[in-house]
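Lab manual, section 2.4: Encoding a predicted structure.

Procedure: take the sequence of the chain (377 residues), apply the prediction step described in section 2.3, and record the output as structure tokens. A sample record is shown.
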Amino acid sequence: MKLLMISGDRSILQGKLGAFWYTLQEMRKHWDRIDVICPYVSEKSLDVSESGHRLTSDVKEGGEVFFHPCPQSLLFQIPWIVNRGKNLIQQHSHDVMTVHDYPPFYNGVGARKLHKLTSVPYVVEIHHIVGWPKAASLSELIGRTMSRLYLRTDAKEASAVRVVNDAVEKQLRAWNVPWRKIENISSFYLDRDLLSTAHKSPVSYDVSFCGRLVANKGLSELLDAIQKLEGVRLLVIGDGPERIKMEQKAKTIGIDGRVTFLGWLPTQEAVIGAIQTARVFVMNSKSEGGPRVALEAMACGMPVIVTEVGVMPEVVKDGRNGLFTTGTADDLAGKISGLLKNEMMRDSLASEASKVLDLYERSKLIRQYADFLKQQT
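Recorded output:
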């Protein structure tokens, strides 16, 4: 069987071997061919032929994966999805499409038009609702409003709507998305071998943080919390539009000597290794679908402090396998200080946290996802 994916994720084409890369390595085992239509990639050296950019891998099992980035800006993404998708379906006879959708919903609009042209069934995937439950900016507030107005229409022509946590499923039902179409299938794939604690890195920091550096990740409040904690060292893993602003803030409040901005790392192994160089992991997001990185930190056997977003309320038992925070600087400072002073509590939380691997084992969940997509044909 053949799968057409419509995605906004172009990280692989930008040389980042992150979560999407590992997901596709497992997904390809269940398909004869996977084509991924995605937005424009600026790298001039990218080799994209008429047949698409082939995903290279040492994995021999399963079908090949080809990427088809739009040659122009996002303004042209909808016609690109329709035209490229139509040509691909004519050439390869795809059985089903899956579309990762979010504001401004160009993926969903393109998929719906493509479905009408080809009759290939498609699944809409809503991994999280932008700006929900809390918007970190005006653009996120607009995105949340758009989601409320559009998602019911988004689901109308789709065979099914995939969500990945209970919170999003509940909200979509409240917004009158047809409940019969909603399927809750996790996307938080954890690799047991990769996340083994057998090769735990030496501890160099007190707190680690990992994520795209945007407003909703709550890094600003975490920096304020670190300022309140004398001598505490923070490692920030990731990059994004807020990086320069956050680096300047660290200097302004006098903690730049205790904060390291590491930037993006090339592989998931490198990210996991860096996360484990701290005693405590903090995830302070205002809205999320997962986040996967918090689950990975737990799987590594790290004590975590997280906000009640995404899948966290389903996984974290406060005081047993992690701690919840309100996300304010004062609350973060109190929780971090308490854990750093209590090694016994850190060890207890870490031991329980590692059991998350049993809930989100990668190969099992991806097989479930692939089977779900095949059932839509």
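Check your result against the sample. The chain has a mean pLDDT of 91.
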